[in-house]
Input
Amino acid sequence: MQRIEIDHDFALPVERVYAYLAEHENLGPMFGAKVARVRDGDDSRNGVGSVRQLRIGILPPFEETVTGAVANESIDYEITKGSPLRNHHGTMTFSSTGTGSHLNYVIEFGAVAPGLDRVIKPGLERAIRKGLKTVDAKA
Output
């Protein structure tokens, strides 16, 4: 199993950062993927049960499903279809810093082939860190 943990501070308040990162279509640049909404959530557009499809380069698409969401506090999701990653779980936890906001982002995953998760980890982490730097300007 691999673990990525990223802490990032934003100038914007939690409400704006949460709203931006909860919107599936905004995640494409952060993951270096084309993202398409498959399904809205059970009680809200981006809430529990909402599904997004990600396509990275020529690789087959895969789907992520939101499994937990508390407005302006946290988003939990899992890969639920079509990926060589296994036991993938992501958690975004948001908090206020007074004038801005803080994100603690943890992703844990394994892979179907031994060592594949170790190969994927550096590129995924690099893409997310780069993408988070653009949120203040876009949200």
